[in-house]
Design a protein that fits this description.
alpha/beta; Spore Coat Polysaccharide Biosynthesis Protein SpsA, Chain A; 7-stranded mixed sheet; two-stranded antiparallel ribbon; 7 helices; globular; binds cytidine-5'-monophosphate
């Protein structure tokens, strides 16, 4: 199958604080988006790497030192919600692409071996995501009161990449649109169709940079690895 990856970087990342949109925040001398692109381009199976950015960030993007790889496509402009940004990325993919990975630029440390495993699982099963077991006991809460406690052994934290046969994902996206459903990840759109989504155990190091404490954790890991330029 011909695979592509959509790299989502059109969010504002307000929980990180500061004026710079999250994907353009510096981590050890490289912005998060460039780190994420470096990781994804490290997987030779991707024939097309499609960044999605906000219109406001076109100048910021043009100023980046981007990897010189012909598989890196020109960025497309995202939408108001994450799902709109995915739709914009999907529409930009060439017709021959039949396997689509979707990745948050805010997960800028994903390992190539994990990318390869989740792509292989999706190729085989139709839909797959990377996920890590949840260390905390999870509570389902409404109005500050616990409604239920799912069995922790059955709880996994969804990561990206999430990878799908293109036709299946396009149908799921269309159904979500028709139903007015907005997901916080992509797998749930496919789950709503009743299609199985396979879980590939990922590395807890593939965490999403959301708040300043996540950035500090990533800086600490980089310093420990001695890979900061
Ligand atoms: O907001 P959240 O952390 O869930 O965003 C996950 C990813 O989706 C980020 O990489 C962000 O840039 C991207 N995103 C997007 N378009 C939006 C909202 C979020 O590309 N409208």
């Amino acid at each position: 199958m011909y695979s592509a990856v959509i790299v989502l970087a059109a969010g504002r990342g307000e929980r990180l604080g500061g004026k710079t949109p999250k994907a353009f925040v510096d981590l050890g001398g490289k912005v998060l988006l460039v780190r994420a692109l470096d990781c994804l381009l490290g997987f030779p199976g991707f024939k097309w790497v499609q960044p999605v950015i906000s219109r406001e960030d076109l100048d910021r993007y043009a100023a980046l030192e981007l990897p010189g790889d012909p598989r890196l496509a020109k960025p497309v402009i995202g939408g108001a919600e994450r799902q709109d940004s995915v739709a914009a990325g999907l529409a930009a993919l060439p017709a021959e692409i039949d396997l689509v990975a979707i990745h948050d630029a805010a997960r800028c440390r994903v390992e190539v071996a994990d990318v390869a495993r989740v792509v292989a699982a999706a190729e085989r099963h139709g839909a797959a995501l990377l996920a890590a077991p949840v260390p905390d006991t999870v509570k389902h809460v409404k109005d500050a009161v616990v409604i239920s406690t799912p069995d922790r052994r059955a709880c996994w934290g969804a990561q990206t990449p999430q990878v799908f046969h293109r036709a299946l994902y396009a149908e799921a996206l269309e159904k979500a649109r028709a139903d007015g459903f907005q997901g916080t990840d992509d797998a749930q759109l496919v789950e709503r169709m009743g299609a199985p989504v396979h879980v590939v155990p990922g590395d807890p190091g593939n965490f999403k940079i959301t708040g300043p404490e996540d950035l500090a954790r990533a800086e600490h890991l980089l310093a420990r690895e001695g890979t900061a330029p």
